[in-house]
Amino acid sequence: MAAVEVLNPKPGDWVLDLCAAPGGKSTQIGAKLQGAGVLVANELVNSRAGILSTNMERMGITNAIVTNEFPERLVDSFYESFDKILVDAPCSGEGMFRKDPGALADWSLERVDRCMGKQEKILESAHRLLKPGGVLVYSTCTFSPEENEQMIEAFIAKYPYTLETIELPGITEHGRVAWTRNQDQTIAKTLRIMPMSVKGEGHFIAKLIKSEGFAEALEIKQGYAKSRLKKATRIELQDYNDFAKNNLAAEFYQKIEDRLFLLGEHLYAIPAGVELMRIANLKLLRTGLHLGIFKKNRFEPSYALAMALKLSEAKNICDLTDEDLAYQYLKGEALNLQAKKGWVLVGYDGYSLGFGKASEGLVKNHYPKGLRIRKK
Questions:
Q1: Domain annotation covers residue 298
Q2: Which residues contact 62 (CB under 8 A, 6 or more apart)?
Q3: What is the mean pLDDT of residues 67-80?
Q4: 318 is annotated as an active-site residue
Q5: Which of 19, 91, 115, 141 is catalytic?
Q6: Is residue 147 part of a domain?
Q7: Which of 206, 295, 310, 357 is the most buried (most CB within 10 A)?
């Protein structure tokens, strides 16, 4: 997606997707990070945050934290922590009119005004979360100058940022200087993607660089609420360690063994470099890689772990080559296959699908019920 290409995240970056649901841009960022660095994907709307978390899991992203917070709540935990921030802002959605009649029905001048208020607050939080020298990309799917050129014009007048020229293949239209309040010539460095010019809907993108050496007096709250997230003890990890040694390649489980935390009965590998105290106050939907859950004195690996694993990182695999068998697995059916007793990573054509459990010539299906195919 264009906004992520402009953001250009690199392995090792700390990246924040501030308005992340449903997750298309977050998963694109996660793929570009290649498991190195940290991705915080935040969504304020509770129902949309759940969808975001699910999509991150299905893409096998290991180094992401998913939060369900107001942007300003993140500042106490992550003040000036991020190298790059994406604000794909909630907007009046004028660029969606062609493909979504509902967007047209919902539009009003009052909606534009409400969106402007939200955008201003989100950008203020983004400023406080971004490191000096960091990159902030702001995007919308609307044509409204008030939410685009004028929003960025007001932001750079208030905060220490410079606009950087955006160049994308096939995109030649830029922000309209005439649509600013003060004829700000630098707005021409922003980009407009117009549906009559390219195959797609209407979008606006601005790329901003935060000035180095800027210091802001900001009171950061000290002290943290008691969190359900806690460091796992050796005794608590016994069942997981047995599973890991029997089922996972040493290079996989050894690189996360000092980052294991419990959230209730669920075991997570928290992203490298993230301190527990920093996120204790936040509403967390996902804290790194969900490894599995402890049930009745046993460890059950998660679908997220299966999607994060390459087949070469598991000791006991069934790499299916028969398409009908793959469909059988995706429908939730057991497989009549000979495999070593215990947990099996099931794959197809070299790619992981999920876990099964083998016993006496049968692989019982552990593919998530909500994802199962009902018919071929």
A1: no
A2: 35, 269, 271, 288, 289, 308
A3: 96
A4: no
A5: 141
A6: no
A7: 206
User: What residue type is 28 in one-letter code?
Assistant: Q
Reduce the DSSP state of residue 149 to 3 states and report it. helix
**155-180 pLDDT, tens digit each:** 999 999 999 999 898 888 999 999 99
Q: Going by DSSP bridges, is the β-strand pair 14-17/82-88 parallel, antiparallel, or unpaired?
A: parallel
- When pLDDT is cut at 50, 70 and 90, the band that residue 353 belongs to is very high
Question: The sheet that has 260-263: what strands, in order across it?
Answer: 229-231, 260-263, 266-269, 289-295, 298-301
CATH code, 365: 2.30.130.60
pLDDT band with cut points at 50, 70 and 90 for residue 232? confident
Residue 192 and residue 139: Cα distance in Å, rounded?
10
Note whether residue 320 is domain-resident: yes
Task: In whole angstroms, give the CA distance from residue 170 to residue 173.
Answer: 9
Alpha carbon of 166 to those of 70, 143, 187, 189: distances in Å?
Answer: 29, 18, 11, 6
Q: Is the peptide bond before 368 cis (omega within 30 degrees of 0)?
A: no
Decide if 353 is inside a domain. yes
Calculate mean pLDDT across residues 199-222.
77
Distance CA 63, CA 36 (A): 7
Average pLDDT of the residues of the chain: 93
Q: What pLDDT, in 10s, does the model give residues 273-317?
A: 998 888 988 999 999 999 999 988 899 999 999 999 999 999 999
Q: How far is the C-alpha of 56 from the C-alpha of 23, rounded, in Å?
A: 7
**Is the pTM above the cut of 0.85?**
yes
What is the number of structural domains in the chain?
A: 1
What one-character-per-residue DSSP string does 242-282 give? HHHHHHB-HHHHHTTTTSEEEETTEEEEPPTT--HHHHTTS
Instruction: Report how far residue 116's alpha carbon sits from residue 124's, in angstroms, rounded to the nearest whole number.
Output: 12
d(CA 20, CA 303): 22
Other C-beta atoms closer than 10 Å to the C-beta of 124 total 16
Q: How does DSSP assign 30-95, residue by residue?
A: HHHHTT-SEEEEE-SSHHHHHHHHHHHHHTT-SSEEEE---GGGGHHHHTT-EEEEEEE-----GG
Q: Cα–Cα distance between 22 and 43 in angstroms, integer?
A: 9
